[in-house]
Design goal:
two-stranded antiparallel ribbon; Beta Polymerase, domain 2; 9% strand; 535 residues
């Protein structure tokens, strides 16, 4: 019996999946079908394989379309002249007319590169890989060599999970699902299971430990409370992950970062992080978070630091990676700063200590500079204080100056997660809505030197101050004063004030600007401390 006939016999009782398998071909974009049929006409086998087959069965839109074939790279390139060798694993990139809806980095690169012909900008790349088995694994990481094979079965056997070991393509006159390891059955039962022995498969490549948790976070439905009806990692697979968790230490931080990012961006980010902990993997990723386990807080909090961080992540409304990382890490400084015990314990300075820890964690994980900077800034400022009638417009301007107007929504998203994650019923109470109104109101006021009504060149031409550091220091003082009182922001007023200040020594000016900003900051900090019991 052919694989597909066997598959159909098995599926007969489950009508919907059967219909789905029959209509699978309609879900495949034409350029992908064309490549497969061209390879077939040239005498080779070819199938779509892996994640895209899984996603069609799950009725999800595949992120990419991978083809596996019996043709070797030289043959693939001969059949498709518009192609290039992608890597040493037998993958050839075939250029096709653009069909993917999302803009991936390949498109962005093509679009950005002015040397590329216009037509290049409207291309997609389909990865076509020769059937292969992998050689010995020596370091839990990379197969020491790659062997091509003529057997689809061998190619599928090297894949990580049964749901990812599916192929679909022409067998004779018909397109069929090739399902040697009962992947479709596992998809139907919502089970993540390794192909073959879990211990062996995880020992070959420790990244699979994390991939299991990543797929679980991506696939499970966070709204389904009955866990028996939700996605599960199969028992033996789960036990092997726990047993072999320390092998993750041999995986590069970049590969760990990529899987972690997918968990954080999934529909179940907090359950994913909890699962990383339960499987003992988190200690090789962000051990700093685990220091919050069992650390109780004070009368303002019903949850421990660990529970609160996870709940904040679960309830944060943002879908951005940097914001979600910030909310997960926003209280990472608490275990180190806790003083006292019981209802009146304090966490003085945990925002700034947490920002330094966040920077260290994200740098270690090789996140981009932009993500590190943004997440660190959000953690640093997550305690911003606001209360209607109590906080002045000047203080809102100082907050915007520190955080950046473009980041205020993200800071608000961190605060909403922080609040909901503490168990309060309302994420955005009246006072936060009022703050948004205030941000709007003052956002046209000067909060940066660029927004002052005079420029450095005015100081040079009108007041004849020589170009140099004095100009910048003067502008800083003028800005500090304008933040306090936006009515000062007219050309005449600022020039008059600069005239008075211009002969002050450079150091005095710098002190003055710093004092004006810092004194106020200290005042605000005191209010924050009172409010949050962090003193
Ligand atoms: P996604 O939808 O996130 O892209 P995917 O399953 O397509 O998920 P990829 O990393 O794109 O994952 O890999 C494509 C396929 O290659 C997988 O479906 C799987 O068959 C195989 N694969 C990828 N990584 C591994 C691995 N570490 N070990 C074994 N097989 C792997
Ligand atoms: Mg993929």
């Amino acid at each position: 019996m052919s694989y597909s006939a066997c598959m159909l016999a098995k599926r007969r009782k489950t009508g919907t999946l059967l219909i789905h398998i029959i209509s699978m071909i309609n879900k495949i974009p034409q350029p992908v079908v064309d490549i497969i049929e061209t390879l077939q006409k040239a005498g080779f086998e070819a199938f779509i394989v892996g994640g895209c087959v899984r996603d069609i069965l799950l009725k999800r839109i595949p992120k990419d379309w991978d083809i596996t074939t019996s043709a070797v790279p030289e043959e693939i390139m001969r059949i498709f002249p518009d192609s290039f060798y992608e890597n040493e694993f037998g993958t050839v990139g075939v250029k096709v007319p653009r069909f993917m809806e999302t803009t991936d980095s390949t498109h962005e690169n093509l679009l950005r590169n002015p040397k590329e012909k216009d037509s290049e900008a409207i291309r997609d790349i389909i990865e076509v890989t020769t059937y292969r088995t992998e050689g010995k694994y020596e370091d839990n990481r990379h197969p020491s060599d790659v062997h091509f094979t003529l057997s689809l079965k061998e190619d599928l056997a090297r894949r990580d999970f049964t749901m990812n070991a599916l192929a679909y393509g022409p067998r004779g006159d018909e397109w069929k699902l090739i399902d040697i390891f009962s992947g479709a059955d596992d998809i139907e039962k919502k089970i993540i299971r390794t192909v073959g022995s879990p211990a062996e498969r995880f020992s070959e490549d420790a990244l699979r430990l994390m991939r299991a948790v990543r797929f679980w976070s991506e696939l499970r439905n966070p709204a389904k409370l009955d866990t028996s009806k939700n996605w599960q990692i199969e028992k033996e697979t789960d036990e092997a992950i726990q047993k072999l968790s320390e092998n993750l230490a041999s995986i590069s931080q970049e590969r760990i970062r990529d899987e972690l990012s997918k968990i954080i961006l999934s529909n179940s980010p907090s359950e994913g992080v909890q699962m990383l902990h339960d499987t003992h993997l988190l200690r090789f990723i962000i051990p700093e978070l685990e220091l919050g386990i069992g650390v109780s807080q004070n009368l303002h909090h019903i949850y421990t630091v660990w529970e609160h961080n996870l709940r904040a992540l679960a309830t944060c409304p943002s879908k951005k990676l940097d914001v979600r990382l910030a909310v997960l890490l926003h209280d990472v400084g608490k275990p180190a700063t806790k003083r006292g015990n019981g209802l009146h314990s304090t966490f003085y300075n945990h925002d700034h200590v947490g920002a330094r820890i966040t920077e260290k964690i994200l740098t270690r994980l090789h996140f981009s500079k932009a993500i590190i900077k943004k997440a660190t800034m959000l953690v640093d400022n997550h305690l911003f204080y606001y209360n209607v009638d109590e906080v002045t417009e000047a203080s809102v301007r100082r907050l915007i100056k520190r955080v950046g107007l473009e980041n205020m929504d993200d800071l608000m998203a961190v605060r909403i997660g922080d609040r909901l994650g503490s168990g309060v019923p309302k994420g955005k109470p009246y006072k936060l809505r009022h703050l948004e109104y205030m941000i709007d109101k003052v956002s046209k006021d000067a909060i940066s030197v660029k927004m002052l009504a005079i420029k450095g060149t005015d100081l040079i031409s009108v007041l004849h101050i020589p170009a140099g550091p004095q100009i910048g220091a003067l502008l800083d003082v003028l800005l500090a004063e304008t933040i306090e009182n936006p009515l000062l922001n007219t050309k005449d007023t600022l020039l008059a004030r600069a005239e008075i200040l211009k002969d002050s020594p450079l150091e005095t000016l710098r002190e003055l600007a710093k004092e004006k900003i810092d004194e106020k900051r200290k005042e605000e900090n005191n209010q924050i401390k009172k409010k949050h019991w962090v003193e």
